[in-house]
């Protein structure tokens, strides 16, 4: 296996990781922003108030995007194994 192949697989792994984690991070970020705005308007500054809505939002995002996540991870795995097998020949 060449250095270029390893770099390409590593690059694809990082890109796949970021794209798979993105929806959950985005849902958590948006939920935190909404809760922060509500806290600012109502002047309720309880730190623990943000945790439960964020956990629920991330869980909802995980359920909604699960088929897409599985297809991305499967696609990456197949691509990586194909490249490693063809490089070994």
Structural class: mainly alpha
Instruction: Look at the structure and give the mean pLDDT.
Output: 91
Distance between the termini: 10 Å
SS strand fraction: under 5%
Count of DSSP strands: 0
Characterize the main sheet: none
Q: Please tally the helical runs, counting DSSP H or I stretches of 4 or more residues.
A: 2
User: Unreliable runs, pLDDT <50, ≥5 residues?
Assistant: none
**How many domain modules?**
1
Radius of gyration: 19 Å
The SSE string, one letter per element, is HH
What overall geometry do the principal axes of the alpha carbons give? elongated
Classify the helix fraction into a percent range. over 70%
Structure described in brief:
This protein has one domain. The protein is built from two helices and no strands.
Question: Can you lay out the helices and strands and say which pair or pack?
Answer:
Elements: H1 3-42, H2 51-88
Helix pairs in contact: 1-2
Explain what you see.
Helix 1 runs antiparallel to helix 2 (51-88). The chain is mostly helical. The radius of gyration is 19 Å and the shape is elongated. The model has no long low-confidence stretch (mean pLDDT 91). The relative contact order is 0.16. The longest helix is centred in the first third of the chain and has 40 residues, at 3-42. It is 88% helix and 0% strand. It has one domain. It has helices spanning 3-42, 51-88.
